[in-house]
Amino acid sequence: MNLFSTMAEDVRSVKKNDPAAPSAFLIWLIYPGLHARWCHVIEHWIWNHWSHGFARWLAQWTRNRTGVEIHPAAVIGHRFFIDHAMGVIIGETTTIGDDVVLYQGVTLGGTGKETGKRHPTIGNNVMVGVGASVLGNITVGDNSKVGGGAVVVRDVPPNCTVIGVPGHIVVRDGKRVQEEKEDAAIHRECLPDPTQEEINHLHQEIQDLTARIDGMEHQQR
């Protein structure tokens, strides 16, 4: 991957995905997620063509400088963007497709039990929200979204939205698996909350039962 063409693509990706993005020059100058990504291009080349040890040392320098830890062996596609980059960890055998957006605090890691390919494969046009973890040798399919704080430990098919701990699918191919009040495709912060919906359902059942008991007591008087 050519570093200069990568830099140009990534700057355009920031302007596309970040409504607060300033000029191209300031994007190049101040976005730590881009700096970490560009350093990784060099580190990945060194890992593959020269020295694993030196590549790891450079990756640690990048981590200290940007707050983003990307193993030099990880494979990352085109137009990769880490928004508000800090605390992001990308493991050694991770594979990331094109047009992927990560937010702060994301972990693409292992479970500690696997060998070989032990980190996730992220498809094209995937968004992983704030503080989410995608763990193990699993695949997140193209055009899928992982909600903030989710912990994903199983494969996610393409065109899905996943939330919760452990992560579960709430939208598949544009159809809601569970009803939600807001459109998650537009309002990323308004992903459905099945736990809250279940609490609301139980609360309604309690109200219905209370009303029935009150009615029975009224009839006995």
Write the layout of secondary structure elements.
Layout: H1 3-17, H2 24-30, H3 32-49, H4 52-66, E1 68-70, E2 75-76, E3 81-82, E4 88-90, E5 95-96, E6 101-102, E7 107-109, E8 121-122, E9 127-128, E10 133-135, E11 139-140, E12 145-146, E13 151-152, E14 160-163, E15 168-172, E16 175-176, H5 194-220
Helix pairs in contact: 1-3, 3-4
What does this structure look like?
- It is a single chain.
- It is elongated, with a radius of gyration of 22 Å.
- Residues 179-189 have low confidence and may be disordered.
- It has 2 domains: 3-190, Hexapeptide repeat proteins (UDP N-Acetylglucosamine Acyltransferase, domain 1), CATH 2.160.10; 193-221.
- The chain is of the alpha/beta class.
- Helix content is 37%, strand content 19%.
- The chain has 5 helices and 16 strands.
- A hairpin with a 2-residue loop joins strand 15 and strand 16.
- A 7-stranded mixed β-sheet has the order 3-6-9-12-14-15-16. A 5-stranded parallel β-sheet has the order 1-4-7-10-13.
